[in-house]
Amino acid sequence: MAAVGGHGLQGYVARRILLALPVLVGVSLLVFGVMRLAPGDPAAIMLGAQATAEDVARLRRDLGLDRPVAVQYLQWMGRVLQGDLGRSIPLGREVLPEVLLRFKATVLLTSGALLIAVAMGLAAGIVSATRQYSWLDKLSMAIAVTGVSLPVFWTGIMLILVFALSLRWFPSAGMVSPYGGGGGADLLWHLALPAVTLGTASAAAVARLTRSSVLEIIRQDYVRAARAKGLTERAVIARHVLKNALNPILTVVGVQVGYLLGGAILTETVFSWPGLGSMMVRAIQARDYPLVQGGVLLIATTFVLVNLIVDLLYAVFDPRIRYE
Amino acid sequence: MSAVTDVVRMFRKSGSAVFGLALVVVLGAAALLAPLLAPHDPDTIDTARRLIRPLTVGHPLGTDEFGRDLLSRLLYGARTSLVVGLAATALAAALGSVCGLLAGFIGRWVDQLVMRSIDTLMAFPYFLLAIAIIATLGPGLVNGMVAVAIVNIPFYGRIVRATVLAVKQTEYVEAARALGVSELRLSLTHVLRNCLAPLIVAVTLNVGGMITALAGLSFLGLGVQPPTSDWGSMLSSSRQYMNVAPHVAALPGLAIFMAVLGFNLLGDGLRDALDPRLR
Predict the structure, then answer these.
(1) pLDDT digits (tens, 9 = 90+) for B128-180
(2) A40 touches chain B (CB under 8 A)
(3) How far apart are CA B98 and CA B117, in angstroms?
(4) Is the distance from CB of A76 to CB of A293 less than 8 angstroms?
(5) CB contact under 8 A, B125 and A160
(6) Contact B219, B233 (CB under 8 A)
(7) What is the pLDDT of residues A208-245, one digit of tens each?
(8) Beta bridge pairs of residue A254
(9) Which residues of chain B are within 8 Å of residue A154 when distances are taken between CB atoms?
(10) B262 to chain A: nearest residue by CA?
(11) Which residues numbered 162-181 in A keep a CB inside 8 Å of some CB on B?
């Protein structure tokens, strides 16, 4: 039986990876469209009002704008697959090294926020569900609905006001101290406020979903059976309830990664965090299409891969899914 | 109408839904009555009275960095933020419903096309897609609205498609078809009507997110452009002065938070009353 199960998992993994490919093609089409669908001549917009007609014509040729759209897409795609994301004209640099450098900062911020969201959300959700309708349940769900409603950019500003400007416990901006910074402790110290800011709303969403999925499973017969055979409440929750509540929770965590990667754009701007989000906002204002495309492509691809991993984890936790 | 009684009963039981409704009504009234309620013109600059603290005579909530009355600006900002949020939600619900209806009703390749497009839209992190669309269309209020509406098409499309597929299986639709009712009339009377309850719930739950997303775009300078202002752009310009005048940053954000909380609580209550399966 073990061999059949393993085969089922392999087949599932292969099918799921194949399903991700058309989505990635769709993503690439949309990212390609960012420049091509813009109203007006992208070359003229990128070079600004002072550009000469020859400069515009040369850029049009370099970008391949004089060819049919399908050819343009294939050429662009071919270059992207070779790691060539084009040149940023305002920065005067290649796009790829620039976005990779900033991607590290965004991943650091998003992971910190995800850690906070999952830890706080799971704890609050489990406590709420196991003590349904208690004052603790009501309090944590009230905090959760407040948390979901908080705009991330405002939370950030309020945290800066209290913890950076008034109490001076944490820095208000940046990723490393200007003097003598750069170590792991210094990084964590800078990360604390942005990660809490970004993670709060997601923690609230995870808490709400954890509560409802745990509540649903707690009512099942097998949980009553586990209690009846004399297991401690702690063992019932850990072994029987949480294990079965894991997949819906995993789903919401996957969705939250999307919210975190998007919310990072706002958080990075509030805290001057040197990530992809703050870079893209400036790039949009400067009409720096290649830089925007590079950033969007990198984040969207990451998100597709995260969703792929989440789907593969489902099959690990719930063998039934492999055979669907 | 049993749905109406359900909603009334839910409101009797749930304090938080009533609180949400009250927040929405108060903020809506404040936006509607802004010209009557505002003590000053929201755009009158008075540099002699810059960054006045709240609870000052004549300026109950103080003034901003140009000496403009903050209460008046918040009231007029409510108009922009709420109207734009509601309009974007309506646009998303309309576009999404059309997609869901076509996919669910026609099926076959139309369903495939719509669902694969929805998959692609959903492959983007929520706010990132709005940013990418703004990068294409250029910053601005209307473009911002279109961007967040497109981002939310999958949300409505999937709800409507699922409802259509469920309703198509029912015996009364089969009976109506056997009686010779045309496909168009069938979709408009029976199918769309069954989508109404889930759509009302979805719209109410979605408005809060729309208001936040649009305020977020304005905060980044990609949404509302000066001289128009909404709560997001007010928050953005206040950041440079938050050291000396924290209230200028605190109040617009508080307004966004209250509006979003109001719609979320109201939506939670409506969902519990109208669509118990989603609970």
Answers:
(1) 999 999 988 989 999 999 999 999 999 999 999 988 888 888 888 888 888 88
(2) no
(3) 14
(4) no
(5) no
(6) yes
(7) 988 988 888 888 888 888 888 888 888 888 888 888 88
(8) none
(9) 235, 252-254, 256-257
(10) A149
(11) 165
Q: Are A265 and A280 in contact (CB under 8 A)?
A: yes
Instruction: Report the C-alpha gap between B88 and B210 in whole angstroms.
Output: 7
Question: pLDDT tens across A91-102, in order?
Answer: 888 999 999 999
**What φ, ψ does residue B63 adopt, rounded to 5°?**
-130, 165
The one-letter code for the residue type at B198 is P
Structural element, H or E, at residue A94: strand A93-94
Contact A299 B128 (CB under 8 A): yes
Q: Treating both helix axes as pointing N-terminal to C-terminal, what angle do A152-159 and A184-218 enclose, rounded to 10 degrees?
A: 130
Q: Which residues of chain B have a pLDDT value below 50?
A: 278-279
Residues 6+ apart with CB under 8 A from A67: A75
Say yes or no: A33 contacts chain B, CB-CB below 8 A.
yes
Q: What is the pLDDT, as a whole number, of residue A275?
A: 92
Question: Nearest Cβ partner of A281 from B116, B137, B220?
Answer: B220
Entry pTM: 0.88
- The token pair at B176 is 């109506």
- Residue A88, phi then psi, degrees to nearest 5: -90, 120
Out of A38, A261, A269, the one facing B220 most closely (by C-beta) is: A269
Question: Looking at chain B, which residue has its C-alpha nearest residue A33?
Answer: B136
C-alpha distances (whole Å) from B120 to each of A27, B115, B243, B252 are 6, 9, 43, 35
pLDDT of A4 reads 42
Q: Indicate the pLDDT class of residue A180, thresholds 50, 70 and 90.
A: low
